[in-house]
């Protein structure tokens, strides 16, 4: 008959054994320490100065003092002495300091539920991979507030990288919105998931909106000053009007056909009496008539002069330009 049990190394009572209570009590001591195992510290190397009865520590490498030479074992304190036990594969222990369950496997105490920080990947209903470190297979996903606001942030490394949301069909991209290769907001579409066609862009500097054949925005110009608006193409049409919240400014509005390429030209299609067309002239801020607005072209730009008294805002919309 063996002298120790196979799992907990509990000493067996032997036939004709004297002082059987000593062996029995030794077995009870081990049971008390190892059943419902609670560990005060994992990878411990320094014995506490005043250990309490029942304290158990999982020893690490380089244990010293009363634990010297016992690396990797369990140190259980009772009856004024340390009892050392070799943990077995699959033993579980509750970490008192960390409030976490661990399991002994391949010589280490591993968390049964790993820490939910710095995970290499997380899959919900599917598997994550090296690129898609967070993967979710679900009919829907909900992100809600924790008392007030809720913001979803997508951050990219440099201005030429991409931070976007891609909408796919059959794992092939069909629409994308975000910062695609620059820092202006874009919405673009694709027929095959490879070639993308811009549908709408918003310039980050001023919110200027641009779509194929159309670009619109507004510019604030001080009195007796000139504002410059880059044209989206060398030729097309532009609608211009002065914006005033108090009353319509039709006299300062107009529709023009322009050429801001090699041959500068600005053709009036319709204009109010207080909006002057100065063609390819260079506007200085006092070129036009006092009390009026003026418009002219130069290479790649539309010039708008304000002489209407006080700062004014002008709205513009470019049409039929590529």
Kindly provide the name of the CATH class of the largest domain: Mainly Beta
Tell me about the biggest sheet?
A: 10 strands, antiparallel
How does the overall form come out from the CA principal axes?
rod-shaped
Whole-number mean pLDDT: 89
Identify the CATH architecture of the largest domain: Sandwich
Q: Which regions have little confidence, pLDDT < 50, spanning 5+ residues? A: none
Spell out the blueprint of helices and strands.
Layout (H helix, E strand, L loop, with lengths): L19 H15 L3 E2 L1 E4 L11 E4 L14 E5 L2 E5 L6 E4 L4 E6 L2 E4 L10 E3 L9 E3 L25 E8 L2 E9 L4 E6 L5 E7 L6 E3 L2 E8 L3 E6 L4 E9 L10 E6 L5 E7 L3 E3 L15 E6 L2 E6 L5 E8 L3
Parallel strand pairs: 1-6, 2-3, 9-10, 21-22
Antiparallel strand pairs: 3-4, 4-5, 6-7, 7-8, 11-12, 12-13, 13-14, 14-15, 15-16, 16-24, 17-23, 18-19, 18-24, 19-20, 22-23
Detailed description of the structure:
This protein has 322 residues and is mainly β. It has three domains: 36-111, no CATH class; 160-209; 213-319, Immunoglobulin-like, CATH 2.60.40. Helix content is 5%, strand content 41%. It is built from one helix and 24 strands. It has one helix at 20-34, and strands at residues 38-39, 41-44, 56-59, 74-78, 81-85, 92-95, 100-105, 108-111, 122-124, 134-136, 162-169, 172-180, 185-190, 196-202, 209-211, 214-221, 225-230, 235-243, 254-259, 265-271, 275-277, 293-298, 301-306, 312-319. The strands form five sheets. A ten-stranded antiparallel beta sheet has the order 11-12-13-14-15-16-24-18-19-20, with no helix packed on it. Strands 1-6-7-8 form a four-stranded mixed beta sheet, with no helix packed on it. A hairpin with a 6-residue loop joins strand 14 and strand 15. The chain starts with 19 loop residues before the first helix and ends with a strand. The model has no long low-confidence stretch (mean pLDDT 89).
